[in-house]
Amino acid sequence: MERTASVNADPAQPSDSHGRWRNWIGFWFLGLCNNFAYVVMLSAAHDILKKQQSENATEPTSTIAFGVDFQGGKSSNSSRYDCNPVSTAAVLLADILPTLLIKLCAPFVIHKMPYGVRVLFCVAMAATSFLLVSFSSAVWMSILGVIFASIGSGLGELSFLSLTVYFSRDVLAGWGSGTGGAGVAGALLYSSLTQAGLSPQITLLIMLVVPFLMLISYFVLLDPPPSLPQWKNSETEHAAVDSEDRRQLMDGSDEEEQDKSTRAAHSTGPLTFTEKLHVIKGLLKFVGPLGLVYFAEYFINQGLMELLYFPTFFLSHAAQYRWYQTLYQVGVLVSRSSLCCVKIRRVWVLSLLQVVNAVLLLFAVGYLFLPSAWLVFAIILYEGLLGGAAYVNTFYFISKETEDRQREFAMAAASVGDSLGIALAGLAAFPIHRHFCSL
Fold this sequence. Notes:
Number of helices: 15
Strand content: under 5%
Transmembrane segments: 25-45, 119-152, 172-190, 202-221, 347-369, 375-397, 409-432
CATH architecture: Up-down Bundle
Number of strands: 2
Radius of gyration: 23 Å
Distance between the termini: 73 Å
Low-confidence stretches: 1-8, 58-76, 239-267
InterPro entries: Battenin_disease_Cln3, Battenin_disease_Cln3_subgr, MFS_trans_sf
GO biological process, one term: regulation of intracellular pH
Main location: membrane
Order of helices and strands: HEEHHHHHHHHHHHHHH
Membrane topology: Multi-pass membrane protein
Shape: globular
């Protein structure tokens, strides 16, 4: 019997609404847990490093780690922008470079690792990052904890995006909403626990429940189809499907296909290296706009946001910056949860609008023409809405318009777009920060 791949076929999924909601919720928690350690690790590392420096300081010299002066507390400079000695882009690069490296390399070999093993690895990375930063006795241990969180988050993102091809396409909305929620939940939970009097170390140990929640979400909540290669790699799965096809042909069986879309995707074996390069070429129309959105977005967040300071506003500089970050995360959460209501095919429009935001705020920093922080709050919220919408719509239309056999690899490979844009934004932010802080 001949099997052909349907380009826009929705992957197999339980027909009952209970099963669909169960998988949607499962992917929501996977998105939340996958990005949670990545979100909170930086704040925790700052606190731990500051405590270490205050306990171990024997000289009155300033120590800078992650772009923050941990010895003096406040940066001493004569700039009108009240700058830190080093751009917050340094923090961004420490967070994003391990993720970028994983996303560049893993899609070509990750099919050899079953999904169950990948989840266990991501859980181990997240738990190790919490433990390392919590019990760190040296700066390098805290840095290593941030790197572990970045590795786990990067591998988890490309793995769970690939995993969506085995389920109904609406789980992408659950995943997107969960990743958006991680920013708000992580920041609020960490701040609330430490504000309540718990030490950063105890707070991080409490957060070890999050990796455990990821295990429950994947192994208990999800209702995967039988074709999912959970404990065997994709190549073994291909061989099993092809063997079953040959047996049915020999037996003259004309039974109705089971999981038609998924089986068709695997019926001709794994993609060759040349085929993967061809898929990547076709993804450029999606990855380019996504990367541009995130470049503009994080150029604002790490290159300009710290410099958007209003001395006469009722909030302090630190409080203004925290609210910028909070409103950005709220915007991301709302737009990443919007896929069930609105779908935007022309992601390049979102890219252009985000670039306009970046140019506007760059001139605002240079010429100080914005009258109040309230207007910046609105722009930052709008920035988060654009970025979150670009993310979920990009992967939705990749899933919808990619052929079945290529879809799993395409979802993993396209995840490099946002990380590449973020890394380039971090590099671009250094000279901008240096220029304005030297004025």
